[in-house]
Write a structure and sequence with these properties.
The complex is a heterodimer.
Chain A: H1 3-13, E1 17-18, H2 19-29, H3 38-50, E2 54-62, E3 65-72, H4 74-98, H5 102-106
Antiparallel strand pairs in A: 1-3, 2-3
Helix pairs in contact in A: 1-2, 1-4
Chain B: H1 7-15, H2 20-36, H3 43-52, H4 57-71, H5 79-112, H6 124-129, H7 137-155, H8 159-183, H9 189-206, H10 219-242, H11 252-271, H12 279-305, H13 307-313, H14 318-345
Classes of the chains: A alpha+beta, B mainly alpha.
């Protein structure tokens, strides 16, 4: 799973979001390090949808424009959980190898 | 209003780069998300933004990247775009194969000259033939090796590595061209730039077709193609030169024309068989014929501007021979072109628009 795909799935983990909602959430989750452009976002969304990890949830009209909301599928939830576990395990190994305790790592 | 368009219209104009089937599904959504990212909620500020702002370069680049991935489709793409994607991947591999074979040729000649160092001093023939300029001959020689690495990396699926190394590999030639352009030492500026564009830059641009959705290249045939090309093409050429029959050997553009023409003729029975799935190779060959044809035309233009070059290379008949090669290439490509066209028109229905569940 790519970094962008991971962040997009994470952004959808707390509930359905529309395109710009995902962009904002990803920026917040990554502390501003991942700023998705719209072309990149829809490339990621299309790929995740093709892989069955997300699906359209609903459409809402605002300012005369339709916004499509996306949500995680069951497979998407499972894939995200597996990826999160993998990344957490990797992070634990890194902390151990660097000799960081929990407090040092947090600080 | 600036230029008669507002921000939404300007962004929609950028989105026209995307294939129609994709825009039908995603355009309105993309526009909504894009405008959301600009609007502040302050009517005055938003009005100014709509009138005067335009999509950022990064935003346009992201759409261009998406368009390249969609037009050069991979698994799951509509058949037309998948065919184009496969054909462009084939062209990239074929041109890189020629580069890699030239590198292999250089490598073998080093061992024939008895040197066994990893980066040996180049043999005298290479020193005299290298463009020189800002780089010592060894750089050109190492670049020749590097194309082997790029080709193998691409075949083995290490796309990012192949791309990065390929970009580095064309830098020496680019620097040499720029230096020649600035100092006025390029004998044929148009030809030199055209060769660099066709032979170096085009395959690197075509490597955009090797994205995550692209099916991997068939490893065994493409890996075997390198020694096969060397044995079937490079060795006979070398043998002809060594036995004093240099006049029998076509120049590089001519050789490319002949090889592509032979491949087209070999593919004709399959292309005309009416079987499904032949269109990808037909389109690949038509695209290769276009590259080889332009290479031939540019080189002939170069020779016409520099009569000494004609004499040095093969004598004054080179122009007539070159035109004959071009004619053969066009005739051979025309035989597979209908199959290539059929492969694109046989469009299945576009994927259904995702509906809220």
């Amino acid at each position: 799973m790519t970094g962008q795909g991971f962040f997009v799935l994470t952004a959808l983990a707390s509930g359905p979001r529309h395109g710009y909602g995902i962009v904002r959430e990803v920026a917040e989750l990554s502390q501003g390090r991942v700023q998705l452009k719209i072309g990149s976002l829809y490339g990621v969304l299309e790929r995740l949808a093709a892989d069955g990890l997300i699906e359209p949830d609903r459409e809402e009209a605002r300012d005369g424009r339709l916004r499509r909301y996306f949500r995680l599928t069951r497979d998407g939830r499972r894939a995200l959980a597996e990826e999160a576990e993998l990344r957490a395990a990797t992070a634990r190994v890194v902390r151990t190898r660097l000799g960081l305790t929990g407090a040092e790592a947090a600080g | 209003m600036s230029g008669g368009l507002d921000l939404e219209q300007r962004y929609r104009r950028v989105l026209r780069l995307l294939p129609g089937y994709y825009r039908d599904t995603w355009e309105d959504d993309m526009v909504a998300a894009f405008l959301d990212s600009w609007m502040t909620g302050d009517p005055d500020e938003d009005s100014v933004t709509m009138e005067f702002d335009r999509p950022s370069r990064a935003e346009v680049a992201s759409v261009i990247g998406l368009a390249a991935r969609l037009y050069l489709g991979g698994a799951g793409a509509p058949r037309r775009y998948f065919t184009w994607g496969q054909a462009v991947r084939g062209v990239a591999l074929a041109v890189l194969l020629v580069h890699a074979a030239a590198g292999l040729d250089g490598l073998v000649s080093v061992f024939l000259h008895g040197s066994h160092r990893i980066v040996p001093a180049p043999p005298a023939t290479i020193v005299t033939a290298s463009p020189g300029g800002v780089w010592p001959p060894t750089v050109w020689y190492v670049v020749g090796y590097v194309w082997i690495v790029i080709y193998v990396a691409l075949v083995l699926g290490h796309y990012r590595t192949a791309r990065v190394v390929a970009v580095l590999a064309i830098v020496p030639a680019l620097a040499w061209l720029l230096q020649g352009q600035l100092t006025g030492s390029l004998q044929s500026p148009f030809g030199s730039w055209a060769f660099w564009f066709l032979i170096d830059l085009v395959p690197i641009l075509a490597m955009a077709a090797f994205h995550r959705d692209a099916p991997p290249a068939a490893r065994r045939p493409w890996l075997l193609a390198l020694p096969a090309y060397y044995l079937l093409v490079s060795v006979p050429v070398l043998a002809a030169e060594l036995t004093g029959h240099r006049d029998w050997v076509p120049d590089t553009p001519g050789l490319c024309c002949i090889l592509v023409a032979v491949l087209c003729l070999a593919h004709v029975p399959r292309a005309w068989s009416g079987r499904a799935g032949t269109g990808v190779w037909s389109l690949t060959l038509v695209l290769l014929a276009a590259v080889a044809g332009v290479y031939r035309i540019v080189s002939l233009g170069d020779y016409l501007r520099d009569p000494h070059l004609i004499y040095y290379l093969q004598g004054p008949h080179l122009i007539n021979v070159g035109l004959a090669e071009l004619l053969i290439l066009v005739a051979a490509a025309a035989l597979v072109a209908p199959d290539a066209a059929r492969a694109q028109t046989a469009l299945p229905a576009p994927p259904p628009r995702p509906q809220p569940g």
